[in-house]
Design brief:
4-stranded mixed beta sheet, 5-stranded parallel beta sheet, 14 helices, Methane Monooxygenase Hydroxylase, Chain G, domain 1, Flavocytochrome C3, Chain A, domain 1, single chain, alpha/beta
Length: 522
């Protein structure tokens, strides 16, 4: 552990890992090189949470049960992905799922176990088997991160730099040459030929979200300006059961899918059920949204199925509910959909490489091909751990020529912003659970004045990609194109293609077709 970072000149040339959630931490732990791990706050902070990993309640999906197999896990993943998964990626991740659980165990994660010592898997929506591995019941993310952060602190070759914010990747001759960032407010450029983006998702661009405040897609904007391809940007998963409490723009408390997996039902104010609780998330979210639009209030009722066992089985969720004046043992829990997970992101290959030499991406910022059009519940922690491990191992084999010493910051500083309420309202109104072409185009028009900011660029990319996809598939639902062909294709664009497409759309009112972008060949 390096308590106080050494002079930055000593860090020049090392791999730079931007983001200290599960993907970033696993990357740093999995390479044998000396490396730098950048965190926006303090590494151990959990309140407020610096990233989404620590908030994960449901667990990590892996075929660990005697009645399960990686093939069944892969089949469920492909079904949820609605024709847009990369089968090679799906098969590799599901095949290695049990070994990833074992690797995390070796790193100190204490999984929930049955009396005989075997893992205690739970059930979540769209899984055909009980395969969700938990730690600390409904505090899996926090338990995982606590163990891994402790291991990072015990690893001398990992330098942790706190209060750091990435601004841009420096690219020279088509390859990474360094990273522009601020550290405790000081702007500088750190030379390196390997940068790993593990910066998280986009949920805080929406009015209702389960994500931490920093989930504004800054890594996507950084990658786009570096020349990377953004893919499947239209696919934003809305979790159907966020606790309906708190002010607009605040992070909503997630009521894990595991609660429905244990038998809780969705009802309206009359007590009537109106949907199948364990359908895919997009299906349940749309059912909840439509029922809300008909004037109903929606509740998750665990009183009969779980009852008095709720505080024991879901202690963190119970405490969250109690803090908002709801007792889930005796009361139904008020819920509403909220932006939860982004399936799109920076397009990478099966090793986590982007199309820019030396630039890698892992976790929610990446579009790996695992999730396709709709993430299967609890596959995201598995993906983050898997790609973090693979990138770390791949970094060991990379030739990294020695760059010059620390360079002074140069050029105008990138305009970054925390999304304001207007941003969030625009995205929730025009790119929410149910979309239309006219609404998406209006949202894009409203976002154009801010497209030079990180948040504005990412919002515009989501709106434009959704406008381009003339179908409903997975988490992307357009009421003006309610069905999807049997086969689908992934969408993708570079920054110049995005800006050119937006300009053409605004001029003609029609969205031009964009070229497909394959993942970088392995």
């Amino acid at each position: 552990m390096t308590t106080s970072p050494p002079p930055l000149e000593q860090l020049a040339g090392q791999p730079l890992v931007v983001g200290a959630g599960l993907a970033g931490v696993m990357t740093a732990l999995s390479t044998t090189r000396r490396c730098v791990l950048f965190c926006t706050g303090r590494l151990e902070d959990v309140t407020p949470p610096p990233g989404a990993s620590v908030l994960a309640q449901g667990g990590m999906a892996a075929a660990v049960g005697p009645d399960d197999s990686p093939a069944l896990h892969a089949a469920d993943t492909l079904e949820a992905g609605a024709g847009l998964c990369d089968r090679q990626v799906v098969e590799r991740i599901t095949r290695e799922g049990p070994s990833i659980i074992a690797r995390l165990t070796d790193l100190g994660v204490e999984w929930d176990r049955q009396a005989d010592g075997s893992l205690q898997p739970g059930l979540e929506a769209a899984h055909s088997r009980r395969r969700i591995v938990h730690a600390g019941e409904d505090a899996t993310g926090a338990m995982i991160m606590r163990a891994l952060v402790a291991r990072v602190r015990q690893t001398p070759r990992i330098t942790v730099v706190e209060h750091a914010c990435a601004r841009d990747v420096v690219v020279q001759d088509g390859a990474v040459a360094g990273l522009r960032l601020t550290i405790s407010g000081q702007l500088l450029t750190l030379p390196s030929t390997a940068v790993v983006l593990a910066t998280g998702g986009v949920g805080s661009l929406f009015a209702d979200t389960t994500n931490p405040v920093g989930a504004t897609g800054s890594g996507l904007a950084i990658a786009a300006r570096a020349g990377a391809v953004l893919g499947n940007m239209e696919f934003v998963q809305f979790h159907p059961t966020a606790l309906s409490a708190g002010k607009e723009g605040q992070r909503l408390c997630l009521i894990s899918e595991a609660v429905r997996g244990e038998g809780a039902i969705l009802v309206d104010e009359t007590g009537a059920r109106f949907t199948h609780e364990l359908a895919t998330r997009d299906t349940v979210s749309r059912a909840v949204w439509r029922h809300m639009m008909q004037g109903h209030k929606i509740y998750l009722d665990a009183r009969t199925a779980i009852g008095a066992d709720f505080p024991r089985h879901f202690p963190a969720i119970s405490a969250l509910c109690q803090a908002h004046g709801v007792n889930p043992v005796t009361q139904p829990i008020p819920i509403r959909p909220a932006a939860h997970y982004h399936m799109g992101g920076v397009v990478v290959d099966i090793q986590g490489r982007t199309n820019v030499t030396g630039l890698w991406a892992a976790g929610e910022v990446a579009c790996t091909g695992l999730h396709g059009a709709n993430r299967l519940a609890s596959n995201s922690l598995l993906e983050a751990a898997a790609f973090g491990s693979w990138i770390g191992q791949a970094l060991d084999g990379c030739a990294m020529p020695a760059p010059p010493s620390v360079m002074p910051a140069s050029g105008g500083e990138t305009v970054q912003s925390s999304p304001s309420q207007p941003y969030r309202r625009i995205m929730s109104r025009h790119a929410g659970v149910i979309r239309t072409g006219a609404s998406l185009q209006e949202g894009l028009r409203q976002m154009l004045p801010d497209i030079q900011t990180d948040a504005g660029l990412v919002c515009a990319a989501i709106l434009y990609a959704a406008l381009q996809r003339h179908e409903s598939r997975g988490a992307h639902f357009r009421s003006d194109f309610p069905t999807a062909p049997a086969a689908g294709t992934s969408s993708g664009f570079t920054l110049p293609e995005l800006l050119g497409g937006i300009a053409s759309t605004m001029e003609t009112g029609r969205t031009p077709s964009l070229p497909e972008h394959e993942r970088t060949p392995t």
